[in-house]
Specification:
Layout lengths: L14 H10 L1 E4 L5 H17 L15 E5 L7 H4 L5 H11 L6 E5 L1 E5 L29 E6 L11 E2 L3 H10 L8 H10 L5 E2 L7 E4 L5 E2 L11 E8 L13 H10 L11
Antiparallel strand pairs: 1-8, 2-4, 3-10, 4-10, 5-8, 5-10, 6-7, 6-9
Bound molecules: 2-oxoglutaric acid and fe (ii) ion.
Fe (ii) ion binds next to loops.
Length: 272
């Protein structure tokens, strides 16, 4: 049994879990998809990769040996992946993470991720240890949230993402004291590098995953099981945030495809 911060099929997200997300910008969740949703999504996932397995332009960060990621514009034709945008549990978690009512959320993009399993690598093989942030530290509450949906169990063996717990708090503390926001984080990262068992990984079972965002320091980890880390990412933002138009670059035709996979009462998630 893989332990997560939020359990399976939560009716509500506890105040403790919300506080954890507010503090760490990182939260794992248990199974929230039905078995049939998982099976349907797995086949759609592999169809999408087979249709476009190595297209350079379809990948993000092609220079990083560990990951391949394919933007939603290359898999929005798969209704079984697109309909999960409107999954009530995913929306509930995004709503809690963003302190925004479900009706005020919008979908702003996503990716298919996998490891490149044809080479075994270690962090030492890179030109850096992999730790990075995707956004600059701010004191503001999260305005963009990323939900990673696992279609197979993801543990350290599969190379789950590692997050720097305590890092976001330190960055906020630095900002409040007019210091460089990342002062002291290097020491925390070095400590984790030397004591890997004390790190925190985004481990979750199939049908579960993790929610994260903001200025969390994170890195992809090496795969040791040889099992693909099958996952799809779903990004949300409040309707009135600066991120709300991110999905519009997909263009009308693709946005319409996504809408068609969603029930009518969830069309509001797609901003045209
Ligand atoms: O694949 C991972 O575990 C991390 C990827 C990453 O850093 C990102 O998507 O921003
Ligand atoms: Fe990243």
């Amino acid at each position: 049994m893989i332990e997560t911060t939020i359990g399976e099929y939560p009716d509500t997200i506890s105040t403790e879990a919300v506080a954890h997300m507010d503090r760490e910008n990182f939260l794992t969740y248990g199974k929230i998809l039905t078995d049939q949703e998982i099976i349907d999504a797995r086949f759609a996932y592999w169809r999408a990769f087979e249709q476009n397995p190595i297209a350079y332009q379809a990948r993000k960060n092609p220079g990083v040996p560990a990951t391949q990621a394919m933007e939603v514009s290359f898999f929005c034709q798969e209704p079984n992946l697109m309909k999960l945008i409107g999954n009530d549990y995913m929306l509930r978690i995004a709503s809690a993470a963003l302190h925004t009512a479900v009706e005020d959320l919008v979908y702003v993009g996503g990716f298919l991720h996998r490891h490149r399993l044809n080479i075994q690598w270690e962090h030492e093989d890179w030109f850096w240890d992999g730790w990075h942030q995707d956004a600059k530290p701010v004191l503001d509450p999260l305005q963009h949230c990323n939900l990673w949906m696992y279609l197979a169990d993801v543990t350290r063996m599969e190379g789950a993402t590692q997050g720097l717990i305590g890092g976001c708090e330190l960055q906020r503390e630095n900002l409040r004291n007019d210091k460089d926001p990342n002062e002291g984080t290097r020491e925390m990262l070095d400590y984790i590098n030397e004591h890997p068992d004390e790190g925190t990984w985004a481990e979750a079972p199939c049908g579960g995953g993790f929610a994260w965002g903001g200025h969390l320091f994170h890195r992809v980890c090496p795969n040791r099981s040889g099992l693909n880390r099958t996952l799809v990412t779903y990004e949300y933002a409040p309707r009135d945030s600066e991120h709300k138009d991110m999905a519009q670059s997909l263009g009308q035709e693709k946005l319409d495809m996504i809408k068609a996979a969603l029930p009518e009462d969830k069309h509001y998630l797609i901003c045209l």
